[in-house]
Design a protein that fits this description.
Layout: E1 26-30, E2 35-39, E3 49-53, H1 56-68, E4 73-77, H2 83-92, E5 96-100, H3 114-126, H4 138-170, H5 175-178, H6 185-195, H7 201-205, H8 216-222, H9 229-266, H10 293-300, H11 312-322, H12 332-338, E6 343-348, E7 351-357, H13 363-366
Parallel strand pairs: 1-4, 4-5
Antiparallel strand pairs: 1-2, 2-3, 6-7
Helix pairs in contact: 1-2, 4-9, 4-11, 6-9, 9-10
Length: 368
């Protein structure tokens, strides 16, 4: 019988080396709506995993505990908006906060708990396997919040325009077919008169503005229908809500203008004067009416509106999303990938399996 040879025990040099501790003072936080679970290195505290409520006082206690444990860098996943208050407090305490894409830190299936999640984040961050998502400076993040809120107001106002159109169609008043925009000068005059009780199509057609392409006869024909009280009530309510959103938009524009001018005053003087506008187009209906080009020129040092298809408001929204420091992306390829415009190639066995463009609803936290 052939004698079997036992394998020699591995020598210390032949054992697989552990991953290098890139961030020995790292912590991991699993953020939630009611509690945040925090994991620190096991040798820093007798209880290396703790839970803190989301109340402000507890968030400060969380930061105090991290400081007592000697933590200098923290990793947390971008879960909803729950991370934002904690991010601000930790950053104000001088901690490095790494905001990571939740899709990049998935654990082994079947091991999904809050405690395990924060420990997994801490371990990945300790060995340097995490990449932080882009987060603009606080002043730019504030501008972004203003502009995103403004877009929400515009979308809400558009919803009530659609409901007014539906109410008109239900009364067989095809005014949206005759007028390109019922929220324009002619359309709003007519709607306000209808809500006030006027149903005579000839009298309503007198509100036609001279710039309106539709003739008075066409408007009269479109306003001849069946005025029903229930649909008039819906029309009135949605018109009032539309007006309310217009007032909120005006107030939001005042806040945006003040913030932009404050940022421009803090920026260094631009290298040259503001160039002549490339076009003389007026702002669109849903765009702010204040001067955007001048403060933008101070903020960036260049006139972004000289680029094709980039107007003042588009340039402002672009600045609010990415800021003016393009060094945050090593190359233009990194920037294109962050914008989710680059294909996500999946290659296996030397074959290209998929080139699907990644989908991300919020690029501010979706990609590093």
């Amino acid at each position: 019988m052939k004698r079997r040879h036992r394998p020699h025990p591995p020598t210390p040099g032949s054992r697989p080396a552990l991953l290098e501790r890139v961030n020995p003072n790292a912590a991991g936080i699993d953020c939630g709506a009611e509690a945040h679970y925090v994991a620190v290195p096991a040798d820093r505290d007798a209880t290396p995993v703790r839970a803190f409520t989301t109340f402000t006082a507890d968030l400060h206690r969380l930061a105090d505990w991290l400081a007592a444990c000697g933590v200098t860098s923290v990793a947390t996943a971008s879960t909803g908006v729950y991370w934002i208050p904690l991010f601000a407090i930790l950053e104000a305490r001088g901690l490095e906060v790494l905001l990571v894409n939740a899709h990049h830190v998935k654990n082994v299936p079947g091991r999904k708990t809050d405690v395990v999640d924060c420990q997994w984040l801490q371990e990945l961050h300790r060995v340097g396997l995490l990449r932080g998502s882009f987060r603009p400076a606080a002043a730019i993040a504030a501008l972004r919040a203003y502009l995103r809120h403004r877009e929400t107001l515009v979308q809400s106002a558009a919803t009530h325009i659609q409901r007014m159109q539906k109410a008109l169609v239900q009364m067989n008043l095809p005014l949206p077919v005759v007028l390109s925009d019922i929220s324009g000068v002619t359309g709003l005059r007519i709607l306000r008169d209808i809500v006030a009780g006027q149903t005579d199509p000839h009298a309503l057609a007198q509100h036609r503005d001279g710039r309106c392409r539709a003739s008075e006869a066409e408007i009269t024909a479109a306003l001849t229908g069946h005025y029903r009280p229930e649909h008039l009530f819906v029309l009135q309510q949605n018109l009032e809500l539309f007006d309310a959103y217009q007032r909120q938009l005006a107030a939001c524009d005042v806040a945006i203008e003040a913030h932009v001018r404050t940022l421009a005053a803090q920026a260094p003087a631009p290298p040259g004067p503001l160039p002549t506008p490339r076009t003389s187009k007026k702002p669109r209906d849903n765009e702010p009416r204040f001067d955007i080009r001048t403060p933008l020129h101070h903020l960036t040092g260049v006139d972004l509106t000289q680029l094709d298809a980039i107007g003042p408001y588009s340039a402002l929204r672009l600045l609010a999303e990415i800021g003016s420091d393009m060094s945050r992306w090593p190359t233009e390829k990194h920037f294109t990938s962050w914008l989710t415009l680059a294909p996500h190639n999946k290659i296996s066995g030397g074959r290209l399996l998929s080139t699907v463009i990644r989908n991300c609803s919020d690029v501010s936290t979706g990609h590093g």
